[in-house]
Amino acid sequence: MQRHMLSVKPDRGGWVLADEDRPIEWFRTMRSAVAIGEVKAYALFLFGGTPSALTVFVDSTTSVTAVQYG
After folding, report:
1. Per the domain annotation, does 66 fall within a domain?
2. Residue at 67 is within a domain
3. How many domains does the chain have?
4. What is the pLDDT of residue 60?
């Protein structure tokens, strides 16, 4: 089963939470984007049974996997 990927990336004065590279929400701080991203990744796994992960991009090339479920 393929893992569902959520990501947090820097964007024009804030941070964007993306679902499979499709922007879904914009946040002013990275901390709030990561917090909501963790909740969404957990909900995908808990209610949909889909393995999921949240990746945080610090800049255009550096990324860190924050959480993985499933």
Report:
1. no
2. no
3. 1
4. 79
pLDDT digits (tens, 9 = 90+) for 33-69: 999 999 999 999 999 998 999 999 988 788 999 899 9
Q: The tokens of 14 are what? A: 């804030």
Q: Are 43 and 70 in contact (CB under 8 A)?
A: no
Report the pLDDT value the prediction gives residue 59, as an integer from 0 to 100.
84
∠ CA 18-22-27, nearest 5°, is 35
Q: Does 61 map to a domain?
A: no
Strand partners, 6: 19, 54
Domain of 3? 1-48
Residue 41, both tokens: 């990744």
Phi, psi of 60 (to 5 degrees): -70, -15
In a domain, 55, yes or no: no
Q: Which amino acid is at 30?
A: M
